[in-house]
Design brief:
This protein is mainly alpha-helical. It has helices spanning 3-41, 46-79, 87-92. It has one domain. The radius of gyration is 18 Å and the shape is rod-shaped.
């Protein structure tokens, strides 16, 4: 692959894709935590407890989807020999 294409893919991943994934990961974590709070806080109401449980389940599903997306992207990039910034550097900056 040409160096310009590799650089374009790196820039798209580092400036667009990874920040979106990080944001969605944070949203899924917040949904999960809100479900935990709702489950505990409203433990006397069966319907509210079920709703909290559903939030926890969907939060976990969202987290697993984001982890899977990151894995698929990394497999795709490694298949074509494109090395990117380590994910720790992307999410911590």
């Amino acid at each position: 692959m040409s160096e310009k294409v590799i650089q374009l893919v790196k820039n798209i991943n580092n400036h667009i894709v990874y920040p979106i994934i990080g944001f969605l990961f944070a949203v899924a974590t917040i949904v999960f935590l809100w479900g935990v709070v709702e489950f505990i806080w409203k433990s006397d109401s069966p319907t509210a407890r079920d709703q909290g449980q559903q939030h926890m389940i969907w939060g976990i599903v969202g987290i697993l989807i984001m982890i899977s997306v990151i894995g698929i992207i990394e497999i795709f990039l490694n298949t074509f020999g494109i090395s990117t910034t380590p994910l720790q550097n992307v999410f911590l900056n």
